Amino acid sequence: MTMRAVMTSPAVRWLALLALCGAYLQGGLVKLLDFDGAQAEMAHFGLHPAHLAAAAVILLELGASVLVLSGRLRWLGALALAVFTAAAALMANRYWESPADTRFMNMNAFYEHIGLAGAWVLVAWHDFTERPHGRSQPK
C-alpha cells in the first residue's frame, strides 16, 4: 500500500478528526462529570451565570465534536469549535497582560489555540469543497 493510499484512507481521516476533537471530548466529559468544577471554571473566567455557561460549553464541546465525527454538518461543528477555541484563547491566554513569569507559557498556549482554530477552519473549508451543494456525506 502506498503512502498516498494510507494517508487518503477513510480510517486515517476519521482518526485525524478524532485527534482534533480529543481535547473537546475530554473537556466536555470532564465538565459533565464534574459540573461543580465546570461552574467554578466558568466563574473564574467571569462567565455568569456560571451554570448556564458551563452547560453551554459542555453542549458545544460534545455536540460540535459529534457533528465533526459523524460527518453530518461537519462544517458547522468545525466552525463552532474554531470560534470557541479562538474565544477561549482570548479569554484564558492573554499573554500581553501576563506577568513576566507566565508570559511565555500563555503566549505559547495562545498561539497553539489560534493554530487549532485555523485547523478547524480548514476542516470546514474541506467539507464545503467536498460537498459544494451539501449532497454526499463523506465520513
The first-to-last residue Cα distance is: 21 Å
Shape: globular
Percent helix, as a range, is over 70%
Q: What's the count of strands? A: 0
Element order: H for helix, E for strand: HHHHHH
Our count of helices gives 6
Mean pLDDT: 95
Structural class: mainly alpha
Biggest β-sheet, characterized?
A: none
Radius of gyration: 17 Å
Uncertain spans: none
Beta-sheet strand percentage?
under 5%
Task: Provide the domain count.
Answer: 1
Subcellular location: Membrane
Transmembrane segments: 51-69, 76-96, 108-125
Membrane topology: Multi-pass membrane protein
Keywords: Membrane, Transmembrane, Transmembrane helix
SSE blueprint:
Blueprint: H1 3-7, H2 10-33, H3 35-44, H4 50-70, H5 74-92, H6 100-130
Helix pairs in contact: 2-3, 2-4, 3-4, 4-5, 5-6
Keywords: Membrane, Transmembrane, Transmembrane helix
Organism: Achromobacter kerstersii
GO cellular component, one term: membrane
Descriptive notes:
The protein has 139 residues and is mainly α. It has one domain. The protein has six helices and no strands. It has helices spanning 3-7, 10-33, 35-44, 50-70, 74-92, 100-130. The chain is globular. The chain starts with a helix and ends in a 9-residue tail after the last helix. The mean pLDDT is 95.
